[in-house]
Sequence to fold (231 residues):
Amino acid sequence: MKQLKHLLIYDFILLQRNKIIGISLAVTILYTGAFQGLATLGDMEKLLILVIFNDPALLGFLFVGVMVLFEKNENTLQALAVSPMEIQWYIFSKASALTLISLFCCFAMAFATKGFDFQYIHYAFASILTTYLFSFIGFMVVAGESVFNTYILKALGVILLLSTPFLGYFEVLPTVWFVLFPTQPAIDLYQISFEKNTDNEHIIYTYTLLIFWTMASYFGALKLMKKNLSI
Fold:
C-alpha cells in the first residue's frame, strides 16, 4: 500500500503536468453548460448516458496511453523493470487516479442534467467500474506500443468497437447482439442509475458481468505489461 500511495501522488503530478486534469474539468464544464441549455427540449437521459460513457472511455483509455508512452520516452518504465516496485501497483495507481477524476466529472454532469433525481450508488459504481475497465484495456493496447500515432489509431479503433452496443441502446440493432461485449453491462448500469424501479435479478446480472469484464481486463493488462517490461 505504501507503493500505491507514492505512485498515486506521482500520477496526479503527472496528470497535472500533462494538463489532463484541466482538460477534463474544461470538457465537463462545457458538457454541463450544454445539458442545462438543452434541458428545455425534454428528457436528455439517452444523450446523457452516451456522453457520460465517453468520459470514462476517454479518461481511462486515451490518457492511460498518453501517460504510459510519456513514461516510456522518459525511461521510467525501464527503471521500473529493475526496481522492487510491483507492476500491479503501477497499473492500479494510474487507473485509480483517472477514476477519481472521472467520478467527479460524471457526477457533475449528472447533477447538471438530472438534479438529485437518480440512484447515486449505482451511478457511482457504473462510473468507477467503467473507468477501471477502459483503463485496463488501455494498458492492454499500449503495452507493446512506443509511438503515439500508432497507439491513437489502435485506441480509436478499439473505442469504436467497444461503443457499438449503443446501436442496441438506441434501438438501431437488437440489444441481444451485444450481450458479450464488455461495455454492454456498463451501459446497462448507467441506465439502471436513472430508472425508478429495476428488477433485482437484472441488477445482480449487470454488476456480475461488469465486475467480471473489469477483472478480466485487469489480468490481461497485468500479463501484457509484465511481458512488455520482461518482469
